[in-house]
Amino acid sequence: MIAKIRYIRHNVMKIVLIIIAFAVLLVLPKILPRYQVFLISQAMTFAIVALALNLLLNYGGMVSFGHAGFFGLGAYVVAFLQKYTPIREFWIAVLLAIIFSAMFAAVVGAVCTRAYGLYLSMLTLGFAHILYVIMYKLWMWTGGSDGLPVDMPTIFGYDFSNVPRMDFISNYFYYLILALLLICVVSLWIIVKSPYGRILEAIRDDEIRCKFLGISVSLHKWVAFIISGAFSGMSGALFAFLNGRVTPDLTLHWSLSMEIVFMALLGGFKTFIGPLVGAVCFTYLKTYAIATTIFWEFILGACLVVIILLLPRGIVGYLADIRTFFAAKNYPKEGEKHGNSRM
Amino acid sequence: MEILECKRLYKYFGEVKAVNGVDFTLKKGQIKALIGPNGAGKTTLVNLISGYLKPDRGKVFFNGKDITGYPPHKISKEGIVRTFQVPRVFMNLSVIDNIRVALISRFNKVLTIHRSLEKMEDITRNAMELLDLVGLKSKAYERTSDLSHGDIKLLDFSIALALDPTILILDEPTSGVGVSERDLIIKTIVNVVRRKGIPTLMIEHDMEVVFNYAEEITVMSEGKIIAEGKPGDVENNPVVQEIVLGGARRNAPA
Predict the structure, then answer these.
(1) By the CB < 8 Å criterion, does A137 face chain B?
(2) What ipTM describes this predicted complex?
(3) Quick check: A49 pLDDT over 50?
(4) Is A194's CB within 8 Å of B112's CB?
(5) What share of chain B is helix, strand, coil (3-state, %, to 5)?
(6) Chain B residues close to A196, C-beta within 8 Å
(7) What's the rounded Cα separation, in Å, for the pair A249 and A142?
(8) What are the CB-based long-range contacts (under 8 Å, 24+) for B134-139?
(9) B220 vs chain A: nearest CA distance in angstroms?
(10) What per-residue confidence (pLDDT) applies to B246?
(11) Is the pLDDT of residue A62 over 50?
């Protein structure tokens, strides 16, 4: 019973922390310079795709090296919509990005869930790269390596096309991304705490046992792909509006897929909130590494080595370890009766 | 009355005749033991029944329905539930979640994504009742990887039980545990199974367990059934004594 109370209290603590974090984020644009607001917006955008990746990575036990595919498709849907249709409404663009990315994820997932381990990872990489090559080579429709421009959208019918981009971001778009990130965090949290999420974890632990419990394993994994792809597509759409230009190298290149996995590792993919922390840290790390030296990739690589060797559970995992370390100091005192601490 | 019936089952792995023309039945409310030396084809037979392998030839009937070649998840939905020689439990989940996973599947809630599992009272209550049955209630919120091997064996059994099986197939329920734990495990299992009246097929190497608890014994060797019957008859069968019992019980009083 105490264990159960402790379990619930632990979750309440987490939720309180998340609410405090969002409250701080709410006031940040008023005190920080615009460039910082842009960086945080970018970090939050990537946080969505990193959290989506973690649904597969941690809860499903599937390593995807192709999340740039879902992300980039979402971004390109926004760009195509602006280039080939008169639609400027933000919500329509985001909704279409989600639908198309989810459909692409359904195709990718249908193939990839038939494979295991490294084969699955390589298949996801392959699908994402096919998309990259298509956007790169069909330059007459996609703009090739220059990509396509993305204008300011109309939000709820209110036209932002004449507002300078930096004003638009720090006064409006930042809050929109924050709200959408909150929605994503809450909905992914609900999903991982639902019966569906628990079965996904069970499949990660022992697929064969799950089959013998009457669970259709491939259907379950396929649904995980679609959910993850949908959130990634939304993240890509937000990035398109944020960045103002969509290019294959920015949104579809395989190195972006790796960066998304890096974010999850950095924050701690064994925790729910780790990828979010990882995305923020990674965005700052990369930005300042690029600003400091032309060998910025060396810095990122070195960080990756250090994390894997010293902090394999990531930043959030490490913080949790510190807490457990202090909590474990409750040994029974000298002469005190040794009870079962787990009861 | 037969609830499970296998007719002329064959499964060869290349030259190895793992299951070579086996006729096998399980009656309602019966605890049956399947014994035989290593490599006799016991596990292969169970794999054929539970859908892990497809037979080369032959049919499996369950309640008169032909279930040959069904995938594992369909067969377990039909009501044939098995455990494994090496326990297959969900090591990174809590003990209660192991049971909940099976209950979610039984209640067809596998694709429910909008409701919190913690708030599904009926599933938690059911899971607690099952854990109480096998004596793991006090460890419900522990991580499964912290359990002892004996407890994991019991958990493995209770996961199978959570599906409300029509037939239970237990693959060596007491392998790898000490004598004192073995008695506890087998008594718990037999008590539960008898009370619920679940027909049970049990592969077992421990002859003490087999002769004390099984109502009927089937002996396999080299892919064939060489003897079948009540424990007393099987024990006195000279072929069985030669191959399986290895003379160990030859001089023991029947």
Answers:
(1) no
(2) 0.90
(3) yes
(4) yes
(5) 40, 25, 35
(6) 110-113
(7) 13
(8) B134/B158, B134/B161, B134/B188, B134/B192, B135/B188, B136/B95, B138/A343, B139/A342, B139/B95
(9) 24
(10) 67
(11) yes
